[in-house]
Amino acid sequence: MCGSLSTRIRECLATRRSKRARLVSKDGRCNIEYGNIKYSKQYAFVADFWTTFVESRWRYVLLFFIGAFTLTWFIFALLWYWIARNNGDLTWQNPPSDHNPCIWGVAGLTAAFLYSLETQTTIGYGVRAVTPYCPGGVALVTIQAVFGAFINCFMCGLIMSKIASPKKRAKTITFSKMAVISPRNGSLCLSVRVANLRKTLMIGSQIYAKLLRTTSTPDGETTIMDQVNVDFMVDAGKDSLFFISPLTLYHIIDKNSPFFEMTVDTLQKEDIELVIFLDGTAESTSTSYQVRTSFIPQEIMWGYDFLPIISKSKEDKYRVDFSNFSKVVPVTTAHCGYCFYNIAGHHHHTRHGYDNQGFEVIEIGDTSNVTQM
Question: What residue ranges are annotated as transmembrane (predicted)?
Fold first, then answer.
């Protein structure tokens, strides 16, 4: 048992070492950190305070939301307590029966806090109120009303901006877990599948990609994250996609492609990362968004193609079966780009193929789980 456990631990560590660090995760987050930033440069985040707040995590936004209101209520409560104390309105000052108070119903710090809360939130229970006998109280209630309105507008705008962030709309755009390399329309292509999980269209969608790789110059200089443009397209082009149903994006592997020199044997050893970007505008909110994902060599399958997922029902509706969204089948494919264009019959897989053990087979017994369009 101990030997089996140690073997599993070694296999797990070997698998982790074989996987290179990602710059972009599968859900689009960038794996990068900034160090040695000068202290003076950090004031730029304070100057651009709105973006700093919007990009903060929800836990910090909620903490700031609660703290801002509670702190301002308490600060103004101290000011109201000071005004009441100077006017002799407090209980321990024993005001006479004919005394004209600045604030009705404020005889202590707790009452001052409640009055501050009621003033700023415009509750007004009717028990506590400012009187016209104290000019300082009239001025302070005016200042707190204006200050409270400013805080309310800022907080409402911050919460709405967080909720309506384009990143949330991008969550309903999904890419296939794997990329495949196979023949397509007489060319060797690298294909990726993308789907819009909502029925609302994405306006002006555009796709582009970058290949990140580590290169070395003849002088021995190493360049990390060297970026190379990779053109992706669909059958109708690469601009203004009709993005209502899942699309298969493909890149033609020709002499100008960075994948042309790679083979089925060397692909897994390459130090590369393919980052794909999809830009567009949401039809319902008119907000711009960007969806990102990446593929490392272990996620690029040579000699496979995606299963079809679009069919037509008896009711003449187009049906999308998402259970096959990331499923692939082996197809006849050349070992490399040069072999595909220059050596006839030089293939990696036969058309008979074999089962792909990397994907889970999902049985669908109820058609209600199928998205209809």
Answer: 60-83, 138-161
**Residue 222 sits in the same domain as residue 115:** no
Residues 6+ apart with CB under 8 A from 198: 172
Query: What is the Cα–Cα distance from 102 to 86, expressed in whole angstroms?
Result: 10
Is 69 part of a structural domain of the chain? yes
Cα–Cα distance between 135 and 204 in angstroms, integer?
A: 59
Query: What band does 365 get if pLDDT is binned at 50, 70 and 90?
Result: very low
The model's pTM is: 0.68
Alpha-carbon span 235 to 249, nearest angstrom: 8
Token couple for 90: 């407090």
Higher-confidence residue of 326 and 27: namely 326
Please check whether residues 228 and 274 belong to one and the same domain: yes
